[in-house]
Amino acid sequence: MQRIAITGIGSINALGAGVARFDAGLRGGTCAIGTLTLFDPKGFRSVCAAEVGPVSLPASVPRSIARRASRSARLALIAADEAWRDAGLGANDAADAGIVIGTTTGGMLSGEECYRRQLHGERRQRLSGWLETPVGTPADTLAAVVGCGGPRLTVSTACSSGANALGIAVDWIRSGLTDVVLCGGTDSLCRMTFSGFNALQALDRVPCRPFDRHRAGLTLGEGAALFVLEGWSRARARDATILGELVSYGTSADAHHLTQPRPDGAGQIAALRRALAEGGIAAEEIDYVNAHGTGTPLNDVIETRTLKAVLGPHAYRIPISSTKSMIGHCLGAAGAIEALASLLAIRGGFVPPTATLAEPDDECDLDYVPRTSRAAAVRTVVSNSYGFGGNNTSVILRAYDG
Amino acid sequence: MGDVRAVVITGIGVVSPVGIGRHAFWADLIAGRSGIGPIAGFSVAPGHPSLGAEVRGFTPRDFISPAHLRRMDKLSRLIVAASRLAIDDSGVRLDSVSPERIGVVVGTALGNISESVGYLDRVLTSGPPMASPLLFPNLVMNAPASYVAMELGAAGTNFTVSQGETSGEQAIILGAELIRSGRADVAVVGGGDELAAVTHDIHRRARTLSPRGRGLAWSSPYDAHRNGLVLGEGAAMLVLESATRAAERSAKAYASIEGAAQFAVVTPPYDWPRIARSALTPLRRLLADGRQPDLICGAANSSRRLDACELDLYGRLMGESASSVWLTSLKGSIGEFGGAGAFGVAAACLALDTGTVPPLCHLRDPGPSVPFRFARPRSVRQSLTRALVCGIARGGSGAALSLVKAGG
């Protein structure tokens, strides 16, 4: 089975634009969660949000695209520009490059704006806003800017979208479909998700506190993380800097409930076991788990049980943290953003903290790295992503050792 | 290109504007019936294009358990019912397959668009406190695939993909890969979309719809006088298994998936000439080594430019042999929608299996210089070995499958 090299990374989230800012924020344990400003916060039960702030596009984006691109597409464009340059790839390399994007709502914010204008009977109603709305559009926009002429796909499996996008890209390379894939996740905040999670009373009124005794829900965030994945031999042949290895992924469906995880964690357990089996990784090899860790009462307990069930006593010996405590839950982008956090931990020799964890829950009795990051030799990492519909994905990344 | 040779299609389930279930769908299709009529699901302003291909006479409770049905949105109902029909058709006994070995892949361009708009309407007009906690979970793109998993007890890989008008083909290709790689024993795959007022309105404003009363009244793919598309809806789901597994349980296979191509071009949206040109090389690769199709099921939707580009593409692809190739498109019967590609695959399977070329609904005048063979006005009995199903999306991506008659 061909190994998969990570040769480029790009990032934007509430901690800032660029991988360097993300890395610094993770090390510093900076909670970037603030208050909603992107649209009118009036009437929401919780107004906590991990916003990116104003988004300025790289100069490489043509004006015709910059004018119409949705916020999700813009976030992805910024991360893609960084990842593609990081990989040292040019326009010629793009001709056969595939693209896989995970997103839950795509350009919904653009669609909402169109609908709002329509409701208010505003004269100026541009059709282009509607055309940017479908979830498949950010992938088309990215492909147009980077020049990716290879296979193109958008995967939308709620909060595991970004993780599944990485997994599908791995499969594409291993099956010989293409040798280089630009992949990851993107999602902007929008009224639909913000009001929906509020209506479900799933949002904490203060910045989310994963694994904490007083946790009361998640905090929504936005952002994008993009990877350039290449077949090992291609990366070696062109002397690319290999940043790490994407070893394997595992998926499963709960087949249980649209919003609640299975209480026995069977689906999460199956996904993690599959990832380990496909990668030929023993539980004892795992040095760090980047948890899904949303901060909802149910998720954190069940995920903790899952880790104990699969990793056994090893679960008690390794650090586990939720980076959502710093950048919120970025939905369709979360899986990719957190895989990137895992890679940064591997490369930087540290474990990012669960920054807002003050008082651990009795049922959450593992080492969740409260408050501050920690220096540690990290070689192999699991990143978990669980989504609405009972969609579970675990991704395994490993250090590059030549 | 991914070699998916060992994957066979053993079950077909459709909920379509021309019939529910494989038998009704195929009977209507080869009789040349169209599901297009005046739109009943929502009101259309006077003077606006008013035709649509809607699913009619669909009784969800015949296919879906009451506990799940209660909360299910329309698109989920279509897709879950089609999945149940596909499983029944395949003869797969679900209790004989380990749940985590059953995968689900659904392709949809727009998902639950009608409820999304209804939900937003309330939030925008009455404020966030009016957001419905019951409705919201149904709005995620993967709600249909999750309901399929619940209804069938499918605990394996569960993907939802979306890439415009190729969403159905993409889902089937991904599902075939689940079988080929050994990740699943049974994969329930396909696509669907619903006809919604908002989609109709956007297409009207983009002037892509067939105007009533001018030229041909409705969708007529490949016709020289075609004047625009008609939107449709429905869901087509297939059961995929390895050829080995199907043989072991002595199951009937309609066709095997011989190969697939996924391609794309860097282009602004709707640049059909460039998109079609980019498809030539990957399609040639897919059909190399004598894998020439007897039947092409295209993406043509009666729009002037897309159909013209497709004809040009297939003409170049087939060259001299074009005159022996049958060409068809289902859009005159079922309309255009994101998951329609899955119907193309379903119809191609049935064409191969029964040795019948379905007629091209509404085709009157293919024009003087089109080299292909069209079945019209009636279906044609003809032994077929291989079919090519091709989809291309406005954003510049495409997906194609090569199917071979089972045992052929």
How many strands, which pairing sense, and closed or not: the largest β-sheet of chain B?
11 strands, mixed
Name the pair of protein chains with the most residues at their interface, and give those residue counts: A-B, 69 and 71 residues
N-C termini distance of chain A: 17 Å
The best one-word shape of chain B is: globular
How big is the Rg of chain B? 20 Å
Portion of residues in beta strands of chain A equals 15-25%
Rg of chain A from C-alpha positions? 20 Å
Structural class of chain B: alpha/beta
Instruction: Provide the CATH architecture of the largest domain in chain B.
Output: 3-Layer(aba) Sandwich
**Total E-strand runs of chain B:** 15
Q: Main attributes?
A:
heterodimer, A: alpha/beta, Peroxisomal Thiolase, Chain A, domain 1, eleven-stranded mixed beta sheet, three-stranded mixed beta sheet, 16 strands, 36% helix, globular, B: 408 residues, alpha/beta, 2 domains, two-stranded antiparallel ribbon, 32% helix
Walk me through the structure:
The complex is a heterodimer of chains A (402) and B (408). Chain A is α/β, with parallel strands linked by helices and 402 residues long. Chain A has 2 domains: 234 residues, Thiolase/Chalcone synthase (Peroxisomal Thiolase, Chain A, domain 1); 151 residues, Peroxisomal Thiolase, Chain A, domain 1. In chain A, 36% of the residues lie in helices and 20% in strands. Chain A contains 15 helices and 16 strands. In chain A, strands 1, 2, 5, 6, 7, 9, 10, 11, 12, 15 and 16 form an 11-stranded mixed β-sheet that branches. The longest helix of chain A is centred in the N-terminal third of the chain and has 16 residues. The radius of gyration of chain A is 20 Å and the shape is globular. The two termini of chain A are 17 Å apart. Chain B is 32% helix and 20% strand. In chain B, α10 links the parallel β10 and β11. In chain B, 64% of the residues are buried. The longest helix of chain B has 17 residues. Chain B has 12 helices and 15 strands. At the A-B interface, α5, α6, α7, β6 and α8 of A face α4, α5, β6, α6 and β9 of B.
